[in-house]
Please model this.
Amino acid sequence: MLKYIGRRLLMMIPVMLGVILIVFTLMYITPGDPVDTLLGDDATPEMAEQLREELGLNGTYIERLGKYLVNLAHGDLGICYSTKQPVMDRIIQTFPNSLKLAGCSVLLSVAIGLTLGIVSAVKQYSLFDNIAMTLAMIGNAMPNFWQGLLLMLLFALHWKILPASGFDGWTYMILPAITIGTSSAAAVARMTRSSMLEVIRQDYITTAEAKGQTELKIIIFHALKNALIPVITTIGIQFGHLLGGAVLTESIFAVPGVGKMMVDAIKARNYPVVQGGVLMVALTFSLVNLAVDILYAFVDPRIRSQYK
Amino acid sequence: MNEHTNLLEIKDLTVHYVTVDGTVHAVENLNLTLPEGKTLGLVGETGAGKTTTVKAIMQILPDPPAKILTGEVIFCGEDLLKKNKKSMRKIRGKQISMIFQDPMTSLNPVITVGEQIMEVIRLHDKKISKKDAYTKACEMLELVGIKADRAGDYPHQFSGGMKQRVIIAMALACNPRLLIADEPTTALDVTIQAQVLELMRKLKAKYQTSMIMITHDLGIVAEICDYVAVMYAGEIVEYGNREQLFHRPSHPYTKGLFACIPNLMEEETTLIPIEGMTPDPTNLPTGCRFHPRCPYATEECSKTNPASKEIENGHHVKCLHI
Amino acid sequence: EEKQTTDGSSPAPSETSSESASAGVEKGPVQTSDTEKVSSKDTLVVAFDREPATLDPLGNNVTVKRMIEGSIFDTLLEFNENMEPSPCLAESWEQIDELTWKFNLRKDVKFHNGDPLTSKDVKFSFLRVGNGTLGNDAATQFDPNGYETPDDYTFILKTLEPWAFTEAQVCSEALSIVPEKVVTEMGDDAFGRAPVGSGAYKFVSWTAGDNITVERNDEYWRDKSILKTIKFRIITEAASRTIDLESGGVDITLGLPTTDADRIEENPDTQLIVSTGATDRYIAFNCQKDVFKDKRVRQALNYATDKESIRVVCYGENTSETMDSVVPSTLPGHISSLKQYDYDIEKAKELLKEAGMENGFEVEFMYLANSTNNMLAELLQQMWSQVGVTLVLKPTESGALTTSLNKGEQELCCAGTSYSLFEAGAGLYNMFHTERMYSGSARSNLSSPEVDKVLDEINITSDAEKRAELVGQAQELIHEESPFIYIAFTKNIIGAGSKVRGFVPTPTAMYDFRTVYFVE
Amino acid sequence: MEKTKDLTSSSEAGSIKKRSQVKEVWRRFCRNKQAMVGMCMLLLLIFAAIFADIIAPYDPVEQDIINRLKPPSSAHWFGTDELGRDIFSRILYGSRISLTVGLIAVGLSSIVGCALGAIAGYYGGVLDNIIMRCTDVLMAIPSILLNISIVAALGTGLQNVMIAIGISSVPAYCRIMRASLLSLKEQEFVDASRAAGASDVHIIIHHILPNSLAPLIVQATLKIGGAILSCASMSFIGLGIVPPTPEWGAMLSTGRDFLRDAPHLTAFPGMAIMFAVFAMNLMGDGLRDALDPKLKN
Amino acid sequence: MSENILEVRHLKKYFPTKRGLLHAVDDVNFSIKKGTTMGLVGESGCGKSTVGRLILRLTEATDGEILFYDDDIRKYDREKMRHTRRRLQIVFQDPYASLDGRKSIFESIAEPLQVQKIYQNKKEMEEKVYELMATAGLARRLANSYPHELDGGRRQRVGIARALALNPDFLVLDEPVSALDVSIQAQVLNLMEQLQEQMGLTYLFISHDLSVVKHISDEIAVMYLGQIVEKAECKDLFKYPSHPYTQALLSAVPIPSIDYHVDRIVLEGDVPSPINPSPGCRFAGRCRFCKEKCRHETPELKDIGNGHMVACHFVGEF
Ligand SMILES: Nc1ncnc2c1ncn2[C@@H]1O[C@H](COP(=O)(O)OP(=O)(O)OP(=O)(O)O)[C@@H](O)[C@H]1O
Ligand SMILES: Nc1ncnc2c1ncn2[C@@H]1O[C@H](COP(=O)(O)OP(=O)(O)OP(=O)(O)O)[C@@H](O)[C@H]1O
Ligand SMILES: [Mg+2]
Ligand SMILES: [Mg+2]
Model:
């Protein structure tokens, strides 16, 4: 197992290099000059040139890439063009927030999605099933900003039970987590339902029944664990996406997250921050994937025995 | 056959599967008795309704689509069909246990075999401690010839034969009075099959458990059954003890079955297969259900469904021409 | 120096003119009445729309940053309610000759760390700005070798040429006075994240992306703040800012979306504060492009535009004001007598015909993609189609837009300008002087010798009256050239909780929160 | 003999025509109630898209400033937008672009994704490793960055927007395809086909694809709404559809500023998107079932 | 020129696995005469299917020769192999798994004709398919059915029709009846025999059920762990089973009669792992007669007369 994890960690290196290369190239070919955004409107061309020199934007593609990689090898992600902070600091400021938010949303979506999915599967074709699956579809299709603002209007303005925006404590996390959570809950619910449906038709479920086990316990002890693999996969992907992709929700609820930081940086062509942010998200994404794979092993001994 | 008390008596059992495509008459007016401590072989083609019958005994038929229309399943003097869910759960696993058709899929792949055996022990003996249950589970494994230290292993770490033995251990864990084995060896290799049969025979001798053995292999029947019931399209067409059936097969279907098995011991001639296919269960033939495939069928066979006749002591045949 | 914003999403909180009930303020804050009891609440939460990159006065000038800086730092001079430079850190000042100015500093000023503020710090602050590369041109007119500190409380500065806006420039927050010792110790970048000044508030904390908190400076050299703490919260989403105000999470919201103004006014829990600012919104022809080289084409399209409709739809009937000149009505020298290009399709067609363009043509309109600008563009497109002009819309992503505009690639764009020095001349110079072509403020890239001449003259005219007159001249000339289509003067719309008292919408955007308090 | 029996029955049924697989799937599809509801919904949308010129009561770009932001009324069923345009007409016209974007972007990404996934899964080894690592990389890059760069490189315009959206969702399909391929290629019927002399391409197209379609269809139908929304978010930062072209996503984003005063600006395009997504999902589920001959309706 | 249609020499297949080389087929030699049936029996996992697949090159052999009409097909390139496939066909073990569940019976049978592009004319091809269905005893009306709608016997017939589509000379029958019910099994076996008579087909009949193999084969090879341990004429093998494993195998088959009583030789334990097998007789671990020698020396396949070959050191001694 340790060896397996080690190998997977090693495999992350080429992926990270690929991420850097692609992001670097994408940013390189995208028109727009960070200097224009950084400098005020009344800056002179000389100032611009000087700044460009200072930021190392004058080198060729290869020079710049090489320099970035060398710095990276020393653990240096560069300096944010606008705030002049090390990119690492900026990531440290925003990343935990995104992590918390993503974590909460995933927990929520798992709670909702699993319950809906299981009940739907057990009561296949019932009214509940139909309603739950329709809700899932709507939850999936409903734009986040819409849902977010509606939630905010209801909970913060109308009922005044939750704060509207900001990120000051766990109460602040509820609304954004619901906003994101419900849309990914839809995916989890659908996935759970279909994989549960497959499992409850298996022979070992009948075996458990023949032992005299109760229905609830059969579902919890026997069926769920077997149905979990595709659900975990979905959750892993969702988690990865939420880390850097909850931009709209982050800005609506004024959550200082890494997604918003990256989008702002992209708009300002703040290269080091974009690269650092993407790298961080990619790294976490890979780690989450690894965690998912390890989780597989926990859930399913057959997979466990493959990790040698 | 009545010299023993009957452990199980099935009377007029009718089970239908109601589906969109029509109603499957899986089991129709089925009567069956099993004396205490004996083994009954239930033989018949695929789809004859063997599994349905035993699932009806256990009351684990999927509902919907399955519907038990009429009948009684009297086990130890009580009609199981009248029992509620809860008391039925107490009987399952404890009084009657079942071995399913496919050892490869009957074990939960993500739970250790020890725990799976423990589960049934603890379900029916609420007082037993976890540790004792585990010890008991290990004993059961040893009993079926698997080393106790493998209790912590997962099903995929066992071979097919071992899995089947685990299932047997699980089924025997609570000393059931009736063990139902649904084609316990079809998925296994001949040599492994021999091992499993050997084991079952030993256990039967040791615990005096009554058993229903479902199979379509007459060879297995010859080996371990005391009584044989031949099923065809949801009905028992012939019932008798081993000698009666093997020496004097009387129903044309039973005869056909014997004729189409290549026999290792006898000098070979050509096989005489039973013509045609199992009838469409949603659209059964009128009269005797076997008549479209029966070489002796007459006009009458297509009209009257014959009643079961006792042609000798305990040998029942359902044919007009006996 | 002025601030131009090319985005027009929601007018950023900008400069407002004069104090409550005075000319610029249309809808002043609720006044204190005797029956109200002062609340013990002593934290004010102010929401604004974007996070400053740094709080170093040296950094790129963004309105929000200046406002926060205003509370942390002091400048030598400051604008009073009539937008005239008045004493601040400098008790008094005088012009010694055409180029030389002398400032006498107060002796009782201490930085937040306890060190006294001396002329050395002033010199250091001015030099820093001169050396900066970050687009700060606040000191470009000053002679870097001309700063003198004869004693601890006297500071002398020299301009390179005679320059009329020296006093106004000294008021600008870029020339806030920073402690030399602290800055040298901390380094520029770190100082920008945790500034130390001499202002009414001390910096407390900065949670990236979330808030910046400052606390009352109890050692302040003049009236201290009533409230103990101010928390500046960053809420980028306009709708969220409004909701947070309504739900009580925020006490003052800057940059309220125009669509929410009515709601805030009607809500008994909130109050609306509207004041005229010094911000223009206009559509700029790129005069260097062939289509727009001919003044008549520009005038024709000006006639073809129903400016009032655009203003009402995009900037709100009551939250903006008709723009009748490039100089905002609040600035000295503004003239309201210009003959407007009133919406007149016939006249437009006529002029186009004169210019030989009666068969119509295609123009590309480049603008920052956001919903306000989209509306503006769509309205314009429909209007111009009536005179045969096909407007090709090119909404552009912000990162690429500035670069394109700075290269003058656009044919037509929309933009806005804030006159942050409150000197029309300074703003006009940046927008229209040939010198400034293709710079960030000069979106029309106009090059006219007559205009240049007047603007040059304004620069060296120290007499305010005279200057105002020249500004009037410049406006006429520019108006005739028609480089812009005037859309609106936008107002500053501020929302506040109904319990907030004492907020004065100052003209400088360096809102002074010292007088703010709550009632029960 | 059984054989003769079957043969005799065949002579009377000799007229039985061989049905093609497509027809067969269609027949099963038609029997699925939900799928038919979904298809009717979609047909309605397509009908609206094609005949928008005829049905729409107003010109979708005709502005009427006086009547801006009017709530639904008999004159304007869905009300008017911020420039006084008829929202109903705009939704009708908008279906053209939105449906195109949804369908093409999803179609593109699913085709490319499937092809890559199929290659990776079928051939395995180094190729598999390379392709899968590439998708890992692609998955880790924020789609907004990808979209900005792709559109910046190719230029704005509907076509490029669809390509951009398509590319950023390739990895998901690639993964799904590969996963089902890994298990499918070991199946005996694949060997049977090979034993008959079939080429790899034949096997992938005729056996593996039809058998792995179910999860792909589910994924694709779920993604259609997402594609429309990402098109909107691109328009929102100036990379997508250029106004005044009506497009649901863009209408939704513009309406955002008026969410509280004129909720109908967001509600109707939002419902239109949901309607389309719902229709697609119903159809997708129906198609999945229809593709599987084992499931009878 | 020999009368052998197929000859296999030193056929080897080692699968690389994580735990080592899996010796699925280890030096297998046999030949089959035209028009006869060779039975291949052995426990699950002993490599029977692999042999069948190797012969068709569905799996590439590690080593050895496969002479089809005295020509080594292992040397053929893709195209030539594709053509040869017409003459070498296989009927798979599991009729359900070997049919694509989404293709109708017609499509499944037509596939070989399509991929080999035998008929340009659609009509002709259809006719051929119906003809094949008739040969295999399938009613025409089943053409539009799907595999799941058929019972096992009919499915297996589809598999057979499919294999016959290209008029092969040689058929590998990989446990064609093990998934079938006894009565249907008899039908299929009869059909096979009938086809062999009519078309002069040659079969390699793989099974683990000795009674079935006995019924259909002319010659039988018994495999154990990738190797052939005994090979003989059908009658000889049943009369004088000489390898201890063959004896156990024979005794393990339940006899559907209560008159015979066989002394069952129950083999202890399961089939040992074929990964990196240790030298010596592979059956040694389960053999009742195992001696010291068996553990070290691999027994050769020896002729004990009449072409009856056995690989055991102590053949005839017990
Ligand atoms: N869940 C179900 N729904 C509908 N029909 C069913 C269901 N289960 C079984 N049947 C039908 O009922 C009949 C009897 O099935 P059953 O499983 O009892 O047969 P069996 O004798 O056990 O066959 P096998 O030897 O294949 O196990 C068959 O025709 C079968 O198709
Ligand atoms: N592709 C493969 N990769 C690795 N090992 C394989 C592969 N195919 C087969 N094997 C192994 O080769 C051995 C022989 O397999 P094969 O399928 O030939 O057995 P068999 O005799 O046909 O068994 P059965 O009776 O179960 O069909 C087995 O141990 C199997 O696990
Ligand atoms: Mg059964
Ligand atoms: Mg095999």
Remarks:
- The pocket of adenosine-5'-triphosphate (ligand 2) is lined by residues E 15, 17, 22, 24, 42, 44-50, 93, 208, 274 (CB under 6 Å).
